[in-house]
């Protein structure tokens, strides 16, 4: 590949990955064409992109973009996936596909400036997503707020009941 073509490839990859913070690196060698197309289509529906890369060019692009060194991860045939709602969703989608398609192997990831191995990606895939975490926090806040309200309502109901009993006694005696 000529230097000019390599520069074009790197420029194209930089442009596609502009603003991307987290990536997952996989090995797609040996996948059937239909599996690969289905994988890319399903990932694209979820806002996740994937591109097969030449390792030496990918190393340069990732280094230029401020990613940590990924020499160990970028060995052998590689593809880079990025996008989605965050690293958890990205890791989850890639891990689910790796379970479905035997030839797809997770190699590692770059997460918040740190290189992570395949086991780290598996751990990330099991974490709750940002949306799920927000839902849990809101649920806890609503649950915590409802307990004092229930106690206040309970005390108010008890006072009202006692007043009603006193009123009934007064009307019964009178």
TrEMBL record:
<dbReference type="InterPro" id="IPR043141">
    <property type="entry name" value="Ribosomal_uL10-like_sf"/>
</dbReference>
<dbReference type="GO" id="GO:0005840">
    <property type="term" value="C:ribosome"/>
</dbReference>
<dbReference type="GO" id="GO:0070180">
    <property type="term" value="F:large ribosomal subunit rRNA binding"/>
</dbReference>
<keyword id="KW-0699">rRNA-binding</keyword>
<dbReference type="InterPro" id="IPR001790">
    <property type="entry name" value="Ribosomal_uL10"/>
</dbReference>
<keyword id="KW-0687">Ribonucleoprotein</keyword>
<comment type="subunit">
    <text>Part of the ribosomal stalk of the 50S ribosomal subunit. The N-terminus interacts with L11 and the large rRNA to form the base of the stalk. The C-terminus forms an elongated spine to which L12 dimers bind in a sequential fashion forming a multimeric L10(L12)X complex.</text>
</comment>
<dbReference type="Pfam" id="PF00466">
    <property type="entry name" value="Ribosomal_L10"/>
</dbReference>
<keyword id="KW-0689">Ribosomal protein</keyword>
<dbReference type="GO" id="GO:1990904">
    <property type="term" value="C:ribonucleoprotein complex"/>
</dbReference>
<comment type="similarity">
    <text>Belongs to the universal ribosomal protein uL10 family.</text>
</comment>
<dbReference type="InterPro" id="IPR047865">
    <property type="entry name" value="Ribosomal_uL10_bac_type"/>
</dbReference>
<comment type="function">
    <text>Forms part of the ribosomal stalk, playing a central role in the interaction of the ribosome with GTP-bound translation factors.</text>
</comment>
<dbReference type="GO" id="GO:0006412">
    <property type="term" value="P:translation"/>
</dbReference>
<keyword id="KW-0694">RNA-binding</keyword>
<dbReference type="InterPro" id="IPR022973">
    <property type="entry name" value="Ribosomal_uL10_bac"/>
</dbReference>
<protein>
    <recommendedName>
        <fullName>Large ribosomal subunit protein uL10</fullName>
    </recommendedName>
</protein>
């Amino acid at each position: 590949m000529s230097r000019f073509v390599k520069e074009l490839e790197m420029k194209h990859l930089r442009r596609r990955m502009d603003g991307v913070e987290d990536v997952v690196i996989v090995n797609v060698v040996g996948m059937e064409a239909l599996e690969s197309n289905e994988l890319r289509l399903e990932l694209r529906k979820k806002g996740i992109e994937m591109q097969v890369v030449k390792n030496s060019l990918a190393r340069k692009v990732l280094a230029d973009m401020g990613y940590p060194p990924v020499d160990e991860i970028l060995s052998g045939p590689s593809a880079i996936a990025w996008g989605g709602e965050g690293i958890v969703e990205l890791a989850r989608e890639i891990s689910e596909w790796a379970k479905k398609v035997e030839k797809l192997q997770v190699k590692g990831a770059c997460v918040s400036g740190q290189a992570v191995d395949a086991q780290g990606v598996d751990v990330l895939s099991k974490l709750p997503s940002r949306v799920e975490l927000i839902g849990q926090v809101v649920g806890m806040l609503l649950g915590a707020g409802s307990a004092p309200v229930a106690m206040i309502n309970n005390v108010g109901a008890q006072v009202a009941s006692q007043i009603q009993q006193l009123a009934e006694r007064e009307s019964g005696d009178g």
